[in-house]
Amino acid sequence: MAEIIQKAGTWTFDGDTVRIVPGTDKGVSLLRKALGEIAVPLGALAGVSFEAGRKSGRLRLRLREGADPLLQITGSRLGDSSDPYLLTVDKDRAGVAEYFVDEVRNALLLDQVESGPVDGYLLPGPALPVTASAGDASVTFDGERIRLEWNWKTEESKSSGGPRTLALSEVAAVEWLPSAGLENGYLRFLTSRAPVSTPPKYDPHAVDLYGFRKDPLMALVGAAVVARLPHPRATAAEPAATPASRPSLTKAATDPADTADPTGPAASGDDHDALLRRLRELGELHQAGILTAEEFSTAKQAILKRL
User: Fold this and answer.
1) CA angle 94, 92, 45 (to 5 degrees)
2) What's this model's pTM, rounded to 2 decimal places?
3) Using one digit for the tens of pLDDT, what is the confidence trace for 56-86?
4) With contact defined as beta carbons under 8 Å apart, do 206 and 188 qualify?
5) Radius of gyration over alpha carbons of the chain, in Å?
6) Closest residue by Cα to residue 69 from 232, 245, 213, 209
7) Alpha-carbon span 219 to 176, nearest angstrom
8) 2-6 and 9-13: which strand pairing?
């Protein structure tokens, strides 16, 4: 198992799951504290990296597109301080971070996890019920209903109608945008796919955000709703993706004639995809008892050097 403990949080990897527990340091963002522990299955990962710096480094997980409802709604617009998949690492722990990266990368290679988009969420999203207060409203979602309650900052034309309640079945999509410069951000619940021209400050299905400290918490409410809506990549013909499981033996892995040269033809030309396939096949051959531990280790190292 690989583990790294920092003020901002603790990351552990057991070969199948990366567990992220936020720290209790006062510098940890409200969003990360509210989100709590996250369990990221190996199949949801597209990659991992560590960027060393003069004073500290950055350990980052990259998730597959569509795997996490929080990233689905926030995209790349979530600030670094609120990003649950970014960990600031002290300079003297750089070696531990690099070991963590190696362990995750080796597991991705051996399981040959694809890095492309998925057709279903592999993470459940924020726990329910979830409530956030920011901007001109407080919003609560219990899994079935969304309730918006206005505060003293709400425009009268919007608050005059009183609190709003939306059933999940009425929601077609959710939009979240952080404030930028002089432009306010918003969290908006769309009841149809048609574009909305009403500014968020007047829209009774939207929260107007001013760029204050609690604004990112509204992304948690949006993510909880998004997690229970149809996945944007899902189709009627294809079932939603599920967490990656161990692959079955491929034809190449069960062909005795293909075991003579462990790095054989599949690795010719250093083709990246072929090398990944070959590494997976070697792992299956070793598990099946066809390759000894020594043979597997030798072949694995040869392939990793060529990646």
Assistant:
1) 25
2) 0.76
3) 999 999 999 999 999 999 998 999 999 999 9
4) yes
5) 23
6) 232
7) 7
8) antiparallel
